[in-house]
Q: What sequence folds into this?
């Protein structure tokens, strides 16, 4: 009976474990050695190393030269450090990655701090990702950041931000210019946020501590 | 092997082997009596289970059941939470001078912000493809992890992947060599390596 039980456990383990082919492709030894200082420093700083490995793998797959891969990984580590500082004091790994992407497309550190003010730990990633997505769609990073920041300050939920992004996409696909689409859809969202029912239900998230952000003087967090 | 393929000289032996052995009528009676006895005891199965789990080895089986239940629960959660981009509620557009639209109420739940997996289907049309892989930041750009499946004999290749909510860059690799972006998705020029990727916002 015991043997049968162990066999069942083994079978389950085999079924749950990823196949061998799902393991990441190994970096060659010279690239690993070149990346080692960057990765070690990132780990020492408490940054997640998975995105850095992914960036290196991406470079290998795209057949980039070693120096370029090392440079790209180092630049990403720097952006992640900056994002974590702006999203202090308690950014999650997902938020750090989202913040780094937002910085990469041209969103300012001030915007990250503002989002942090209004979004507690674990909920700042999607607003930043929507900003980056809008920027990639053709909206100027400043406009994307302004629209999403206003929406966040106005109490928009993540679902509403995602809906805003989807609405802009729909408009752009039907021929509307991205900045025009974002402007009109942002107005729609503003009206939605000003509707009495939304005021009654209040915010989905609580504001962060004012003391943690140098940008506190520029915006007023909502009351909890 | 069919009967007509059997050599005629072997046929008597085959016929002999196919004959059922005679059963012992006393053994049949004993089995039937035991079956009737069990039918009259509805708790027999429960007692057997209790006996089973009271043994030391039963803990292993119990652990296996817990592991299996956890796996099923995780799978079910991911399936329930799965959604796609196209299903997102849209925000009304408002231009200058337009009347105020009737707007739906915002949900007070911010569950979309939680770290979670979302099922996302990727498809690509390629009549030349013999093999298509999906690579992206979600699988460490590993072309061996997510192989697309061909839809019958059509040119459509597809795969459904559980992705963490958020923004992801990805591409297809056709025949292990041709870098191909998703024509249905937003494209990004990679500043680091100069190669275009596709972009998806999973929510």
A:
């Amino acid at each position: 009976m015991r043997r049968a039980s162990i066999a069942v456990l083994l079978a389950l383990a085999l079924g749950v474990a990823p196949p061998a082919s799902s393991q990441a492709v190994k970096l060659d030894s010279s690239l690993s050695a070149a990346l080692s200082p960057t990765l070690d420093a990132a780990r020492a700083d408490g940054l997640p190393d998975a995105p850095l490995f992914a960036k290196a793998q991406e470079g290998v797959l795209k057949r980039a030269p070693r120096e370029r891969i090392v440079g790209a990984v180092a630049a990403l580590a720097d952006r992640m450090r900056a994002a974590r500082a702006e999203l202090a004091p308690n950014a999650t790994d997902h938020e750090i990655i989202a913040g780094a992407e937002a910085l990469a497309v041209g969103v300012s550190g001030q915007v990250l701090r503002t989002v942090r003010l209004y979004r507690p730990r674990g909920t700042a990633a999607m607003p930043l990702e929507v900003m980056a997505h809008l920027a990639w769609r053709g909206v100027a990073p400043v406009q994307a950041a302004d629209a999403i920041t206003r929406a966040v300050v106005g109490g928009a939920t993540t679902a509403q931000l995602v809906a805003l992004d989807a609405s802009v996409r729909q408009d752009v696909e039907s021929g509307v210019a991205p900045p025009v689409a974002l402007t009109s859809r942002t107005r729609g969202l503003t009206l939605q946020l000003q509707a009495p029912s939304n005021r009654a239900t209040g915010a989905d998230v609580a504001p962060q501590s004012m003391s943690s952000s140098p940008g506190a003087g520029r915006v007023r967090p909502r009351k909890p | 092997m069919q009967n007509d393929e059997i050599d005629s000289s072997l046929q008597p032996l085959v016929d002999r082997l196919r004959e059922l052995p005679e059963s012992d009528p006393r053994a049949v009676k004993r089995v039937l009596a035991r079956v009737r006895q069990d039918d009259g005891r509805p708790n027999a199965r429960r007692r057997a289970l209790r006996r089973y789990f009271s043994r030391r080895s039963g803990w292993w089986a119990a652990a296996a059941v817990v592991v299996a239940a956890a796996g099923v629960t995780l799978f079910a959660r991911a399936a329930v939470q799965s959604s796609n981009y196209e299903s997102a509620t849209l925000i009304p557009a408002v231009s200058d001078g337009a009347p105020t639209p009737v707007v739906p109420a915002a949900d007070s739940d911010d569950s979309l912000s939680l770290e979670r997996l979302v099922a996302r289907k990727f498809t690509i049309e390629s009549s030349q493809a013999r093999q298509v892989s999906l690579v992206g930041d979600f699988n460490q750009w590993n072309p061996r992890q997510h192989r697309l499946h061909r839809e019958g004999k059509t040119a459509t290749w597809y795969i459904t992947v559980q992705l963490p909510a958020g923004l992801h860059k990805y591409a297809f690799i056709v025949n292990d060599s041709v870098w191909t972006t998703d024509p249905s998705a937003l494209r990004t020029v990679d500043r680091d390596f100069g190669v275009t990727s596709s972009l998806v916002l999973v929510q």
In short: Chain B touches chain A through 63 residues (CB under 8 Å). Chain B has two domains: 24-77, 113-202. Helices of chain B lie at 11-18, 25-39, 44-54, 58-81.
